[in-house]
Amino acid sequence: MREADACQASPDGAPGRPSEADVESVLRHSAELLRPDLPAFTEGVVARVRAVSAYYGDPTLPPPDLARSALTAFDAFVAGLITPDRVAESGDHAWAVGDRRGREGVPLQTLLDAYRIGTTGLWDALVARVVRESPGRVATMAYAAGDVWRRADGDVALVVEAHRRAMARPPSAGGGPRHRPVLQALLRGHTHPAHLSALAQCPGLPRYGRYAVVLLRGPGVRPLETESGYEVRNGVELYWCPQDDGVAIVALLGARPLTALGALVPVGAHTRGGVSTVVTGLAELGRARELAELALGACRSDGELAQVGDRLSRAFALTRPDLAGDLADQVLGPVLRLPPADRNELLTTLAAWLDCDGSTRRAGERLYCHRNTVLNRLRRLEVLTGRRLAHPRDVVDLAMALEAQWVSTPPDIRTDAGP
């Protein structure tokens, strides 16, 4: 049949409408033209998805089989256009993808956005090949759009239902660590509605609640405390999320105090930990992670789990190390310019006196010296700095400067001086 005869009256009498056979023929023709180019086409679509999606664009969140799964999906869809007997393959793959991504915790809206981008790209590619190779059939191709999008809508419906069923299964029934990918995004500061809505489907993760973040870092950190990445300890729900340089733990505290985490998250040798303040919802997990990072930086030694609320002075200094150096020099300059042994002796004595609430007796016991020795060292420090420990404002200056000195000193020459 000549291409000019391809368009004829449809059964309902609409002039110029091609027959169903002609539509199937042009779709088969365009699919055959596209199929050899599917690997390169898929690569372009995946790049587009990564560019427009905050989730897929994150280097750590997308599933590792994203490109392979996309190629399989496109191949199955195109195969169904070429061979009617294979039309069910696309739906089978769509169901498998929906189930797998649901178990992995990929947000449904993110998945649907990827399908929309993929279908749009596929249709454009099919049309482009007809325009290039068979321009006389472009009019017929226009009527094929409805058939392509109906098939795509059918696949999307299967994706949605499979994803819904996977999310509805409890973790013990094979749901897996569904929380982890989206928690990773929220810990990085992403607060896209798709991430929050995905977590709303995860059992035990209310959008609003008393949350805290713990960061563990060091060669002694195990990648995951539990296989599933989730456990309940003494009424506190802990969600373990691997990081590039350690582990982050999102704690849903309920009515438990923040201090309970000290006993629930033990820190072993060669490990340091930082605990944020309490935040009131999932959207604040990014801020909580930043606070936990500050607390981690304020740790004095391995084996410590520091709460940022107990290290606010040092946390302030950590946020502006340039100003910390200026403050330390302004208040403690004469002390810092002493020979190392004298300098460390005075700074360590000041730190012990502050830790002991201004008690020279207890500071002496800590330093293994007489209280009069502590008094003599403190008087020397007062003379050098021009500050008086009997004046509250001067004590604040000295305490802040001591923290600033610790922050601005290279780690390899730090002492334990510091409140």
Which H/E pattern describes the elements?
HHHHHHHHHEEEEHEEHEHHHHHH
Fraction of helical residues? 55-70%
Q: Roughly how many Å is the radius of gyration?
A: 32 Å
For the biggest sheet, the summary is: 7 strands, mixed
Number of helices: 17
Q: What sort of overall outline do the alpha carbons produce when their principal axes are compared?
A: elongated
On the 0-100 scale, what is the average pLDDT? 83
Low-confidence stretches: 1-14, 172-176, 411-419
Quaternary state of the chains: single chain
End-to-end distance, in Å? Answer: 90 Å
Note the beta-strand portion.
Answer: 5-15%
Task: Count every beta strand, where a strand is a DSSP E run of 2 or more residues.
Answer: 7
* SS content category: alpha+beta
List keywords for this structure.
elongated; alpha+beta; disordered N terminus; seven-stranded mixed β-sheet; 57% helix
What would your notes on this structure say?
With about 425 residues, the chain is α+β, with helices and mostly antiparallel strands. Helices cover about 55% and strands about 10% of the residues. It has 17 helices and 7 strands. The protein has helices at about 20-35, 40-50, 55, 65-80, 85-105, 110-135, 140-170, 180-185, 195-200, 260-265, 285-295, 310-320, 320-335, 340-355, 360-365, 370-385, 390-410; strands at about 210-215, 230-235, 235-245, 245-250, 270-275, 280, 305. Strands 1, 2, 3, 4, 5, 6 and 7 form a 7-stranded mixed β-sheet that branches. α15 (about 360-365) packs across α16. It is elongated and about 105 Å long. The chain starts with 19 loop residues before the first helix and ends in an 11-residue tail after the last helix. Residues about 1-15, about 170-175 and about 410-419 have low confidence and may be disordered.
